[in-house]
Protein: Erythromycin esterase family protein
Amino acid sequence: MENKPFKYNPITKEKDLDVLIEEVGDARIVMLGEASHGTSEYYTWRTAITKRLVQEKGFSFVAVEGDWPECYAVNRFIKGYQKSGSKIADVLQVFRRWPTWMWANWEVAALIEWMRDYNHLRNANEKIGFYGLDVYSLWESLEQILKFLENNDGQAVEAAKMAINCFEPFNRDPQTYARATAFVPTDCENEVVEMLQKIQHHRTFTDDPENDFNTRQNALVAVNAEKYYRAMVRGGGSSWNVRDSHMMETLDRLMELHGRNSKAIVWEHNTHIGDASFTDMADDGMYNIGELARKQYGQNQVKLVGFGTYQGSVIASKSWGAPMQKIEVPPAVEGSWEHMLHKINTDDKIILSKDLVNVPELQGRIGNRAIGVVYDPKYEMFGNYVPTVIPGRYDAFVYFDETEAVHPLHMKSTSGKEPDLYPWNY
Structure:
């Protein structure tokens, strides 16, 4: 006999998203989560939701948990800028840093193809964009700044060169830089701040209004990335907060760029988009972009949608920087949110938080599955469940009983030298 303690909405086809689109209402920001960075269904259903939000509610852009320079290359492609590429698979090869599979996959290729087709017959100010919110691309951002300024702003180029020269002794290795600044009283903070100030004071003019924004954003990435890598060695939640504060600041800047009526769709892990104040992250003084957006724009203007699964497979790595592989995801542990949804029945479903207010067992914290880019199912019960007040953390939750791994464009990942001291890998 089916156990149905609260209302849910089965989801098998795109029409079933009606209940979620209605829940969005007039919100300006919709954040679409994921319980891993390597599950196909999360990408494909977020794409379906994104299409409807753009077509039916006039959303302006998609902002993702990716690095700014690489995502801006994709943005140029979908808007048809000159010399931006002609083949989607080739353009997605810009995602060369581990974990490459997060954005260089066939599911993302389908999204990008749709976005480019949607933009094809639209005026420049009507085209939807694709941007990265993350903070990891320190050296890539510095190089893009230098290249742009050499051609456009001779007054600011020296500041950019000074910033790059300051980082040179660390061999493009954020881990080396982070550890060095822990023991040496000097760092590159002054150089990157001065560079940002120079760029802000010497505005450049080009035919592409986004070029100027791109340069300034790369400078902001360099400033905040430097803070992030220094914060890593201190431990605790400080580096996490630097990262999510940067993502919120970038989202604000994008909203301003797109005008007073702009609307944003955000794709990030549940640990970023689900309001951290309703999890044990708050116990450690941590916050995230979902919580910050609610505080800044208001509850009614921000909709947070979590995603999760009971079992299946995922693309991930067994250690930081290791080759990607397909890994089996075991059934969710007993007592978790995903286990509870599986016990109701094996339907894929959408649950609205407003339908959970009278469910006693959900008014306190229960485990909510979270798989990062590093994953070993043998240890899942010890670190892959975030204690969560579900109705507070999300406005809605999309559940799949069984999922499959995302489909990377290139399964053989060339892992560069990446930090092995990240306290979180979501």
Confidence is low (pLDDT under 50) at residues 413-425. The longest strand covers residues 302-316.
